[in-house]
Design goal:
By secondary structure, this protein is α/β, with parallel strands linked by helices. The protein has three domains: about 10-155, NAD(P)-binding Rossmann-like Domain (Rossmann fold, 3-Layer(aba) Sandwich); about 165-265 and about 305-320, no CATH class; about 325-390, RNA polymerase sigma factor, region 2, helix turn helix motif (Rna Polymerase Sigma Factor, Chain: A, Orthogonal Bundle), CATH 1.10.1740.10. About 45% of the residues lie in helices and about 15% in strands. Strand 3, helix 3 (about 70-75) and strand 4 (about 80-85) form a beta-alpha-beta unit. The model has no long low-confidence stretch (mean pLDDT about 95). It binds magnesium ion. Magnesium ion binds near residues 157 and 226.
Length: about 400
Amino acid sequence: MPNTNNEKKRVAVLGSTGSIGTQTLEVISKHPDQFEVEVLTANNQIGKLVQQCRTFLPNTVVIGNKDKYHQLQEALKDLPIKVYAGDQAIAQVVEMGTVDIVLTAMVGFAGLLPTINAIKAGKVIALANKETLVVAGDIITELAAKNRIPILPVDSEHSAIFQCLAGEFHNPIEKIYLTASGGPFRGKNTAFLSNVTPEQALNHPNWEMGNKITIDSASMMNKGLEVIEARWLFGLKPEQIDVIVHPQSIVHSIVQFTDGSMKAQMGLPDMRLPIQYALTYPDRFTSDFPRFNFMDYPNLSFEKPDRQTFRNLSIAYDAMHTGGNMPCIMNAANEVAVEGFLHNSIGFLQMSDIIEKTMAKVSFVQKPSIDDYFKTDTEARRIAQGLIGM
Ligand code: MG
């Protein structure tokens, strides 16, 4: 349904050169009468960022890496685009009066401060940065409720749940099932996993994604992070969230209501759909994305996740049960461990060892403040790096 008040939604895309950022701009480009790109931010990929600026002519652009500021400024000097650099600028630019909706597609803990600032400034959040809710879901959801800010999920599983809940928000949820593809190593044992390379882990069967989330998918940490993300997004108890492996990635997740009825959301694995739904919510816009054909998928299958081999899923449940700053510790250790694995400093299975050891070492805080979360993140990274020898 077209926007009836004739006003375009002005979007800030944080992490615009990554996989989600790029697909967000693709969605926006198909609805130029509905959306306007107001802000673009990226960390490093200056060539791609310049190209995006030339296509979408944002009001403001920020490059995270300050060393690239002059290069960016030089490349855009013929255009009326404001150019800034650094993490502080990324955290501030979301507060601009001309921004309506902030899509957070940057990777990791870096998403926390910009998201907090955007909520405080009254912006609608399209949340693609799951780590923000994993780290500080208590503070974020409380802040969003206080400021009456909707947090619209972009993650495909959470978008699925959110879509199933349309018209049902007053009905209690009995439980949800988050589906998991199982990644490239589904069915493998620890002997196999002890020798896998980053290249093998980066080869996901169903989804095209950035490096960090692809490794998380191979290790099942992505599903662990998503379980915690779902807890906060939908106000659930840990025992109400289950994970089911579904190798075809067609059923994106399932809600079970208290009468026993289950609703699932289905479609081809295509991130542009959840991105578009978050941007157009509560409406659905027509799209030309490829349609699902049952004859291409005569067998949709489901199986139990292997929590012994893929320990990260159990680790994430433990962190969620413990609460406090434990998910923040786990997230920081995981970010460091993924870096370590990508740089061949540690093996695939050692990632879980590093995370568990870090969780045992960092000081536990039961009711953390924002400041505590920042301190926890720093301490956990230091300890995890020490364990790896980075
Ligand atoms: Mg997901």
